[in-house]
Design a protein that fits this description.
It is a single chain. The protein is of the alpha/beta class. The chain has two domains: about 260 residues, Metallo-beta-lactamase, Chain A, CATH 3.60.15; about 180 residues, Rossmann fold (3-Layer(aba) Sandwich). About 30% of the residues lie in helices and about 20% in strands. Strands 6-5-4-3-2-1-22 form a seven-stranded mixed β-sheet. Strands 7-8-9-10-11-20-21 form a seven-stranded mixed β-sheet, with helices on one face. It has a six-stranded parallel β-sheet with strand order 14-13-15-12-16-19. Helix 3 packs antiparallel against helix 4, helix 3 runs antiparallel to helix 7 and helix 12 crosses helix 13. The longest helix is centred in the first third of the chain and has 24 residues. The chain starts with a strand and ends with a strand. Bound molecules: zinc ion (ZN). Zinc ion binds next to loops.
Length: about 450
């Protein structure tokens, strides 16, 4: 018997996480994510899987980001009939994220005259197969036994620790690792007994800046932008970043540290996700539990208005300035933020605050790089608003966090597979693990299967 792991996505690239663990009898996928390039969805997502989904016994989802779950419904479409495992929060978040992305994929397919990659029925089919587990609740598939550890990356995110009845080895898939300490989530749990580690490396060669000053900087940007008297627009990802912002704004207003101005959460998706953060508030970090017990909902405050309908969204323009608008998409590549950008980017009193990574080619990146003109809904917009960048709130571990994570188990490791990163960062991290921890680390090739012996 041989234990093998195949790298069918998330090798040589950040997105499209998809690994196949097998002992020759039982086959389990870890993640089944979308590859996300310049477009929301790359063409390769339509390709057949490189294995037969009918032969897969189970799929484990590490967390609810689309680059880890987004091709899951296609598994159903292609005949998968096993069980899907994830944490309870991930199950609920998947319900929201997959329904939302199915709509985006359908509209994109229509534009390109393609069949959609999957349909609503396949999303429902996948959700019906989920058997959700708590952190540290063990479960078995064939001779494999699984246990989720808290990854501290987004709500519900998990590191998967796996053992096998006929070996004495421990196999660990990190999924995405958090940037602890997070404002909301518990710290990433430590693993001390891995023989084989399949890890992420998104920021394998970079350090995050300003983690200790991030709150002060947020306060300064808000105060400055309110003094200018215009609109503060915040393009934000609906999961995690939005909830951090709501929590911080609520506390800063309460403490009188920033002006009390109207705040709009203008994203039906983010509103739904925020409800789940409230539902799972017991899973937020220990130091928040007192506040949660006292306030009930730490993401709500009297100056916050959630605009679900299109009409409510349009009506935001009638509220006098200054005001704050949080809306998707996080890189200004679609979503309601574009309507606000169209209205306000040419106003010198307004501000756009960038809070997350902006990929090359996205409108957010153009703005961040000082672009003076952008095109929104086929109209040229002159950029006169102030563009601010707030770093420090990344949800990913940086280079030093990743090395530290491995250091806790470096004595037991036989081999590390450095995946889920671009070739540069992955190669850098593999070299660093070797140099600093004397660990054997390789960057796996996409499509290749390795024996864990
Ligand atoms: Zn993630």
């Amino acid at each position: 018997m041989e234990i093998t792991v195949g790298f069918f996505g998330g090798a040589g690239t950040v997105t499209g996480s998809n690994f196949l663990l097998s002992d020759g009898t039982t086959k389990v996928l870890i993640d089944c994510g979308l590859t996300q390039g310049k477009e929301f969805c790359d063409h390769c997502n339509y390709d057949d899987f490189e294995y037969d989904p009918k032969e897969i016994d189970a799929v484990v989802f590490t967390h609810a980001h689309l680059d880890h779950i987004g091709r899951g419904p296609k598994l159903i479409k292609d005949g998968f009939n096993g069980v899907a495992y994830c944490t309870h929060a991930t199950e609920d978040l998947m319900g929201i994220m997959l329904v939302d992305s199915e709509g985006i994929l359908r509209r994109e397919a229509e534009r390109k005259n393609l069949f959609p990659m999957y349909e609503r029925d396949h999303v429902q089919g996948l959700l019906a197969k989920i058997d959700a587990k708590n952190y540290h609740e063990k479960f078995s598939v064939g001779d494999f036994t699984f246990e989720f550890f808290n990854a501290g990356h987004i709500l519900g995110s998990a590191i998967t620790r796996i053992t096998h009845a006929r070996t004495d080895k421990v196999y660990v898939f990190t999924g995405d690792l958090g940037n602890s300490p997070s404002p909301l989530l518990p710290d990433t749990e430590v693993i001390t007994d891995a023989d084989y580690l399949i890890m992420e490396s998104v920021y394998g060669d970079r350090l995050h800046e300003n983690i200790e000053h991030r709150e002060e900087k947020l306060r300064e940007i808000i105060t400055r932008s309110m003094e200018r008297g215009g609109v503060l627009m915040i393009p934000a990802f609906s999961m995690e970043r939005t909830q951090i912002l709501l929590y911080k704004l609520s506390n800063m207003m309460e403490a009188g540290e920033i002006p009390k101005v109207p705040v709009f959460l203008d994203s039906p998706l983010a509103i739904k996700v925020t409800h789940l953060y409230k539902k799972y508030s017991k899973e937020l970090k220990q130091s928040l539990q007192g506040e949660i017990a006292k306030e009930g909902n730490i993401f709500d405050f009297s100056f916050l208005e959630k605009t679900e309908s299109k009409d409510a969204s349009k009506a935001i323009a009638h509220t006098p300035n200054p005001k704050i608008i949080i809306a998707g998409a996080g890189m200004s590549h679609g979503g309601r933020i574009q309507h606000h950008e169209l209205q306000n980017l040419s106003d010198p009193a307004s501000t756009l605050m960038i809070v997350g990574y902006q990929s090359a080619g996205s409108m957010g990146r153009v703005l961040q790089d000082g672009g003076k003109k952008v095109r929104i809904f086929n109209r040229d917009v002159k950029v006169k608003a102030t563009i601010e960048t707030l770093s420090g709130y990344s949800a990913h571990a940086d280079r030093d966090n990743l090395v530290e994570f491995v250091s806790h188990t470096s004595k037991t490791l036989t081999k590390v597979f450095v995946a889920m990163g671009e070739p540069g960062p992955a190669g850098f991290l593999a070299q660093r693990l070797h140099d600093f921890l004397n660990v054997k680390a390789i960057v796996p090739e996409k499509g290749k299967t390795y024996t864990l012996d």
